[in-house]
Amino acid sequence: MQNKWRFFYAFAALALPLCAIGQDNTRGDRSPIPTAVEEKTHRVHLSRKEKRRQRLLFKKPKVENTARYEFYKRVEEAAKEKQKLLKKLSKPQYSNFAYFGHKKKPKRNKPYAMKYCKECGIRH
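Above: the chain sequence. Below: its structure as tokens.
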């Protein structure tokens, strides 16, 4: 009987310190003793009208007639135009062989109405 009690005391002596170690802060980001009392945030429940009034009070006004706004608007438009121009210039000028080096596609004339072209050197 005494051996059973000794075993129980030995088990308790080993188990209790292990349980205490298990409660220790392993991440190390919190101190074990709270130094400052954390304040809970106080939430206020507002009615619909009060919420709407609060939204209107804190809503930023849309000011579109200021000089700074107009400047940035012009800069954005200029950037868009430049992007369009770069996209247009990236394409080859004479990619379609039917243009024969002309800016506009040459007109298909009847054989008796064809004329010699100085630009491309053929009749069309």
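The longest helix spans residues 67-90.
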